[in-house]
Amino acid sequence: MKEMYTITAFSENHIGLLNRITIIFTRRHINIESLTVSSSEMKGVHRFTIVIEEEEALVKKVVKQISKLPEVLRAAYYQNDEIVYREIALYKISIESAIEKNLEHLLREYNARMVDIQKDFVIIEKTGHVEDTEKLYDILRHFGILQFVRSGRISISKQKKELSSYLSELPINEYVKA
Amino acid sequence: MKKITGAEAILRSLKEEGVDTIFGYPGGAIMPIYDKMHKEDCSIKHILVRHEQGAAHAAQAYAQVTGKPGICFATSGPGATNLLTGITNANLDSIPTVFITAQVPSHLLGSDAFQETDMVSLSMPVTKWNYQVTKAEEIPEAIAKAFHFATTGRPGPVLLDITKDAQLNTLDYRYKKIKSIRSYNPVPKLKEDDLNEAVKMIKESRKPMLLAGHGILLSHGEKELLAFMEKTHIPTAVTLLGKSAIPEDNPWYVGMLGMHGNYAPNILTNEADLIIAAGMRFDDRVTGDLKRYAVKAKIIHVDIDEAELNKNVQADLPVNADIREFFKAITPRLNYKAGGEWLDEFEKLYKTEYEKVIQPECYPENGKIRSGEAIKMLSDKTKGEAIVVTDVGQNQMFAARYYDFKNPNSLITSGGLGTMGFGLPAAMGAQVGAPDKTVVLFAGDGGFQMTFQELGTIFQYNLPVKMMVLNNNFLGMVRQWQDLFMDKRYAETNMPTPDFPKLAGAFGIESHVVTSRENLETAIEDMLNSEGPYLLEVKIEKEANVFPMIYPGSAVDEIVLE
After folding, report:
1. What CATH architecture applies to the domain A3-83?
2. What's the pLDDT score for residue A143?
3. For residue range A132-154, what is the model confidence (pLDDT) as tens digits?
4. Hey, which CATH number is domain B368-539, 3.90.930.12, 3.30.420.10, 3.40.50.970, 3.40.630.30?
5. What is the least distance, in Å, from the CA of A73 to any CA of chain B?
6. Which chain A residues are within 8 Å of B183, Cβ to Cβ?
7. Which residue in B133, B145, B324, B424 has a CA-CA distance of 20 to 30 Å to B272?
8. Nearest neighbour of B307 by CB, restricted to A19, A68, A73
9. What average pLDDT does this structure show over B473-497?
10. Per-domain residue ranges for chain B?
11. Which residues make up the CATH 3.30.70.260 domain(s) of chain A?
12. How many DSSP H helices and E strands does chain A contain?
């Protein structure tokens, strides 16, 4: 059965690694639902968060193929109930409709906030799961959304010793000159 | 410290890694390296090929016969892209190779400059690792990493793309080999629990079978494998790339697996109650229909590459370890011998295969010459001691089936990729790597025509390769499938061939053509007795098929003899 899985990988910060990782998905014709890459808490180490909808047996194979890349430090996969995950959405609304309707009430109700106010528009920010940001989108649609953007997923596992905890134990990779 | 140029640093770094031979082809962007190589004090031998694909195949074969990584040089753009088939071939067959391609100056990157190709992106899916060097000072570390990745763990091709300015600029040169990299764990530790479990599973088995793959040769574990077989008497089959890991007269050797493998090991895969898969990856050409593969067996799968475990076949005991270490550790712990009746079952099926297939193929009395008889005769005349290189197709299957391999790494063939045109350049590389050995090429007329420009290289370096071209004026394997599955509609598989002896003659290469059985033996002897390169064209039966065969989609035990 296909389910949502979140894959986390740590890698060296080298040019081209993103490409190497995505090739593993594309060659198996797997669609990436969301992909977030950023530096981790450790200098020079990048963190990939990749969401796919697939069967677990296939996810396992893919994770092994990611781990196998010589510049990937670690990779693992999780189901939604094993992680805390979030994404962020930004909504741009015209100032007229924001004033006209009771926006303040709405923001409180949906635990969203206004992050910028300009002469012509306001920008609203909401973090949560896809369903949450989508729900707010549906409501704000009636205000007339000028622009909307959603980030990829970021996640942290609920295990006590998370994958990243081993980063602190990593030796420094140095090409020691003779 | 004296500054040297990037080009010099490349050559010095290669020497530090023990490189003495490079296959390559010059061009604009790589000229600084060739210029430094031209200087008298450079001790590296360069083999000038006639096409970069040839360099790649030659380097891979060189690696296989020498046990050292194969090295290739090519210029940017078309020089580099011409390598891709060879890189892919080395990738699928896990051959340690280092490809160095030149690139346009770094300030032109991304601008569609003359002969610019994004070689790092192009080679990404088919290399174990690759890297673009844009600064001279990066060169020593990049080369050290390249050799470390190419040769350790599951080996494979790596590529360094080096811009022209990085070759020309200077650096403070210091070299240090790499011993470990934190993100890379090439040799997994063999676990005590896995060993104990494997011992238990072997002891409980009554019909065990061992499947030996390329990993045996790559880990240099032939002796450990033979010791294991000697102690346990477990019938052992090989994959195509595992061929030559076991001398074929070994009493527990039961033949080759797969689509055109031997009858007994394919059928009995579905009778075995335990399968020990050793350094092999359950390729679809080995397993046939996966749903009906190894139906009665528990499976122990040992591989150095964890991504191979449970990839195609679900193992009851996946063991992530070096196969040599595994055999070394498990053999002393085992006090077990497989029963003789089980081995007898293989023997019985072999007899059937011998009568129905092998005997008529290798010792026919009438009709045209058959590939099997030519190969068997060559096997006898060389006493199984030659290095055999094949092209792809029927010639390859016949060579694997009928040459009696004695020494490790004496079969050089394109397994995973099935690259037609592999044979001639690979034979050339094998001969460069093993100058004192008899290197024999078996090629069909189709594959030979794909890369026969390398006759120029063979001529230039007087490489005494013995080339046997098995000519049926057909793309034989495709024709066989058209015969079996497409009602003999021979779409584009029938081709006229050039006058091969004349072609060889144009390169100053000795040659002969043989058309009849009574002249075959003398023709082969003449070829083997010749001093230099020699091309023997053998006109073979036009529509001969390779059997046995597991039809596509069939199970291993549905293998047919005719």
Report:
1. 2-Layer Sandwich (3.30)
2. 83
3. 999 999 999 988 899 999 999 99
4. 3.40.50.970
5. 4
6. 11-12, 70-73, 173
7. B324
8. A68
9. 97
10. 3-172, 192-346, 368-539
11. 3-83
12. 5, 9
* Residues B61/B389, Cβ–Cβ less than 8 Å: yes
> Given A12, A20, A178, which is nearest B183 (Cβ)?
A12
Tokens matching residue A60: 């396992």
Q: Which strand (E) or helix (H) includes residue B40?
A: none
Q: Is pLDDT of A178 > 60?
A: no
CATH class of A84-150: alpha beta
Of A65, A73, A178, the CB nearest to B175: A178
- What is the share, in percent, of chain A residues with pLDDT greater than 70? 93
Reduce the DSSP state of residue B276 to 3 states and report it.
strand
Catalytic residues of B: 52, 114-115, 164, 477
Gap from B175 CA to chain A (nearest CA, Å) = 7
For A170, the closest of B182, B305, B311 (CB atoms) is B182
Q: Are strands B236-238 and B253-256 parallel, antiparallel or unpaired?
A: parallel
Q: For residue B128, what are its two tokens?
A: 């174990």
Q: CB distance B183–A68 less than 8 Å?
A: no
Contacts of A70 in chain B (CB under 8 A): 128-129, 149, 181, 183-184
Q: Return the bridge partners of A39, or none.
A: A46
Q: Is the per-residue pLDDT at A162 higher than 90? A: no
**Using the beta-carbon criterion (under 8 Å), do B149 and A176 form an inter-chain contact?**
no
What span, in angstroms and rounded, lies between the C-alpha atoms of B513 and B499?
Answer: 10
Asked if the C-beta of B290 comes within 8 angstroms of chain A's C-beta atoms, the answer is: no
Residue B184 sits at the chain A interface (C-beta within 8 Å): yes
Q: What is the pLDDT of residue A174?
A: 59
- Structure token digits, residue B474: 């057909």
Q: Do A173 and B181 touch (CB under 8 A)?
A: yes
Chain B hits for A178, Cβ within 8 Å:
174-176
Rounded CA separation B508/B511 (Å): 9
What is the predicted ipTM?
Answer: 0.94
- Residues from chain B contacting residue A15 (CB–CB below 8 Å): 132
Alpha helices, DSSP H only, in B434-516? 445-450, 455-460, 476-485, 500-506
Between CA B148 and CA B146 the distance in angstroms is 5
CATH homologous superfamily, domain B192-346: TPP-binding domain (3.40.50.1220)
Question: What does CATH list as the number for B3-172?
Answer: 3.40.50.970
